[in-house]
Amino acid sequence: MITLLDFGLSLWHRILHLPSMYCYHKVHHSVRITKPWTNEVEHPVEALGNAIIKYGNLVLVSTWFQLSPKVAFAYFMFSTWYGVMVHSGYNLPPFGWISQMPALSFIITPQHHQDHHLHGGRNLGAITSIWDTLFQKVVDVGLFRQSGNTTTRLTKEPTEPTEPIPPIPTQRMGKPWQVSLRDINDDQLAELVQAVRAHGMIVIPHQSWSLEEQEAFTSRLGEVTATVVGQAPEYFEVHPRIVRLSNFWADGTWKGPKYQGAEVWHQDGDYMKMSQRHILTVLCADQVPKCGGGTGFVDLVAAAAALPASLRAKAEGLSCFSSARKNAKYMKRDFTAEDAERYPDQRVPVLHRHPRDGREVLLMGSELSIFEDLDHQPDPETTQSLFQHVLNPQWMYYHQYKPGDVIIWDNLQTLHKALPFVNDGSDCRLLWRAQARVTAAFQW
User: Which InterPro entries does the protein's record reference (predicted)?
Assistant: First the structure.
């Protein structure tokens, strides 16, 4: 009975991903980061199909076998429980154990379904990956893409384009790089920096260094700085120039369930003057939660190159308005008069040339920014269209940390955001962030 349910739901799911049917499924896919309630977000047509399969399966099996009310009750309890759990976004028991057992790798976990909501065209299975395997659709993934994944393009969800889209550049981000950062020489450093320029964001695994060594390395990339808005002394309670990002205080006590990272898409320092925004970030993973807690990235070079002509025409007249005060309010921090004087409101053109190589990038600021026309009037329609274009899975990369991972990214080439994890005090997420402002003195 469960096998028939799995087959029916998997087939129905595949049908809903056909271009002619996707209009009924895109309501469900409007939720990118799944939560338990996501299971109930669906179009009536999709809901009707699910109900026919669930109830029809029971009727069909009951014509072959005599089923007791207890079996029918257990069947409906399981189907409801599984639907909620697989949309939870977290590998709660028993899925945490299942994901660590190769013999059970055919079972669809919340990790697989979260990946499906992010990337669209893969992991379409309902309960198992058997049917995906038969159609050669399944991809061996975790909650978010691992570093070193050689997939060059993420599958785009079916849409009905209103005009031809220019060729999309190959997915660049997440390039793995093998070097010891504490011992890196000048030639190796030059190669690494060129890799950051070429890929926007790279991953250097298996690093072991002190905070002083991280600062010394960062100082070779540019002027060591910190993009911290408002009053956040806890960021520097261990080191004066390296930000401590964690859901635990330095003394080992839990900050509580309301701990908030930067869980909106943003560019660091979007409230700074344009001349101060060319920043390289060096982020080191010290402790990581069992599930989630990674960082997502968007390739703004690829997004700019793929702008449809009509949207480009609108974007050329827009400025991105960013407010340090608004950012501090979002992060629940005090914002002093000195902060206001140091960081006045900023307006920069949305379309911008990278200062090092002239490539066009989209300066999106953050999801808190306001896009204005030439008269400084908000343009919400174009703002929404631009973010829909930029937040396309085809130029996204999701990195799930392992202890010792160091990721380096170019702030002008990328958007990024912290990804959710179970913050109940059982797991510590501890990252160390150093940043370098690239100036004319650093010719890389």
Answer: Fatty_acid_hydroxylase, TauD-like_sf, TauD/TfdA-like, TfdA_dioxygenase
